[in-house]
Amino acid sequence: MNTDTKYRLKSRCPRPLWKALTGIYRGFMRFGLKTEMTFAPGKMKVWCPCCGLRLENFSEWDYMALSDLYDRSLFEGTRQDVQCPYCASNPRHRILALWCEAHKDLFSSKDILYFAPERGMSRWFKKKKIRVTTADLFDPDADLKLDIQKTGLNEASYDIVICNHVLEHVGDFRKALSEIRRILRPGGFLICSFPISPDVEYVLEDPSVTTDEERLKLYGQSDHVRLFGMKADSFIEEAGFEVSVIDGKDYPDEIVPVTAPGKYDINRLFLCKVR
To answer: What is the three-class DSSP state of 36?
Structure first.
């Protein structure tokens, strides 16, 4: 099924029916992949720690086909076969899953808030029986409907907040970081990531840019309102955190922890402890 057909069907299909159909499809897919793992283990070159499947290859997604959403030039020259065909994890999700696996004790008996959770990481937490409260401003499946800039939650109400590729979408990312700091308990921490351009030092943003076309041209994606740079972690420090890096280069090749699929998808996550 090509990209246009898929998105046209999704837009016309009632949400419960679409979820049911995709659930059935993924069930058949998982059965096929597990069968291949059993009978042809020598062919399995890559591994997704989010869903636990070993695969012959990861898949390409539709970035190059969605020219209204993505600047295709930013995807040229970067590896595209980086997405798990089952749980849709990208390199940063698999890096995070392996980091979490190595630090599972940190999550024990903790109150965890996850903004805009990715399917692969949601599956990892479920598989490990770690309870996570999900939050999103638009997703009806999230546990809480929250604006990350002003959550309305009590001060010091969570031990851990996870927030990946959200801060490039919000109106005021400094306000969002301050709000996350407010709802975290003493000793708590934030795990976050965002698109990072090697051509930007701190942050590129322009409030006068308001249309999808302008945002696409300036930031590389029509639903982004800024592009972070190589020293953007300094903004997290200013919000009251001690920051260390979870770097993709420290993880095994079999999870494909590369800069991809876009040139701004540098796989660097930040572990941010409340100061």
So the answer is: helix
- In whole angstroms, give the CA distance from residue 4 to residue 21: 18
Q: How far apart are CA 48 and CA 118, in angstroms?
A: 14
* Average pLDDT rounded to a whole number, residues 180-184: 98
Residues 231 and 203: beta-carbon distance below 8 Å? no
**Can you give the CATH number for the domain in which 172 is found?**
3.40.50.150
Give the closest residue to 193 by CA, choosing from 119, 96, 50, 79.
Answer: 96
What is the span of the domain harbouring residue 148?
91-274
Q: Are residues 18 and 103 in the same domain?
A: no
The residue-averaged pLDDT of 139-145 equals: 95
Structure tokens at 274: 């409340």
Q: List C-alpha distances in Å: 103 to 50, 97, 106.
A: 15, 10, 6
User: What does pLDDT average to over the chain?
Assistant: 93
